[in-house]
Structures are given as C-alpha cells and as structure tokens.
Amino acid sequence: MTSDGQEPLHDRMSRLVTSDRAVPHLRSYFGLGPQRDATTFTGSRFESLAGGGDRPAVADTVTADDLIAVQTLSVRIPPQAALDLLEGDLGVRMSDLLSAVPSGVDMVEAETADLDRESAAHRAWDLLCGQRGIGWVTAAKLLARKRPRLLPVYDQVVRCALGRPESPWLELRTALRANDCALHRELTALRQTAGLSATVSVLRVCDVVLWMGHREDHRENGCAGT
User: Does 151 fall in a domain?
Assistant: First the structure.
C-alpha cells in the first residue's frame, strides 16, 4: 500500500489487466464475440475511423473526422468550438501545439517533458478545457484521437478505476515502465490474445479493459475506486 493507504497504481492496473474478464471484455467491445452485432460499441471505431487521427497528413490538425470519432465515445464538441477548431484561431493554436507533441511514440517510451504540466500536450489540454462546453473528459478524448499511442482516453470511470491519480499521464507512464515495462508487455500480449489488430494502441487496450471492468460498479455505486 502507498502512504495514503491506496494500492500502488502498477499493482492495481496489473490486477485488472490480468483479470479473467479482460479478454472477453475486449472481444465484446471490439465486436469479436459470438454476439458481435449486439455487443459492439461505437467506440471500437474511435482510433481507426477515416484512417486515424494520427495519420501523417492530418496528425497536427483537428479535422471533421476527429470530431465524429470523439462522438463515438459519447461526448460532443459544441458547434461553436467545433467550427473554431476546423476553421478558426482555435484550430491554428491547436495545430501549433500538436506539432510539438511527439507522434508515433508510445507512452511507455515518452520523456517526462512530453507529458508534464509544461508540455505541449498539457498546454493543448488546457486550451481545450478553456473553451465553452469542453470539459476535461472531452479534451482528453480529442487529444487521444490525435496521439493514441502517447495520450490515453481518460474519463470519470477510468479515473475512478485507477484510484484518481493526481498526475494521470505521468503516473500511468511510471506504471507502464515499472518492472522492466511489465504492464506494457502484459497489455501488448492481451491485445494479441483478444485477436485485436496491432493498430489498436496499447493505451486503448488499457482504457477499454479498465472501462469495461468498472463501468457497472461506477454507475450503480458512484464509487470512489474499484
């Protein structure tokens, strides 16, 4: 246990990732189970829609495809902010910041400067959160669409499952790196066991396992952790 009585993040995540439910949850979410038509979640297209938000031609630009992709995760960019992202100054400012955020880099490999409060990624998050109608969940999901290997989808359910870490990006990176990157390797193996494409990021595998494993308890109990 940590000094505040919580289970260490690496141990908490490893327990959830190695659960017997992890593979069935992944297969169900991505429509690979026997009841695929009934159980596939729209979020299964979040990363792959229109070739992905991090493909070279659009990696540093927020596009209409990105705005639709975010909607598959049950959030919506308000119309005025959407127009500003597509055609206005907000889009220009986001592009400037995104151009300074590494693309094609897994979180486990990232430098502290890529994820800390002074990073371009965090400044992009702050910029989005400063727009009317865009909260921290929506901001996190849009950034995860642009940098799926580096930045996680992060919402209330996942935050709760992780024990509400103070610095989620840095603490998650530390957990992925612990014990010679054991958790990162477990997630990579889990992706293969579930039969998912290698184009599904390790962070997305992690997010889906945590979200699927905790969403019912979170909704029914309003709990503060798993």
Answer: yes
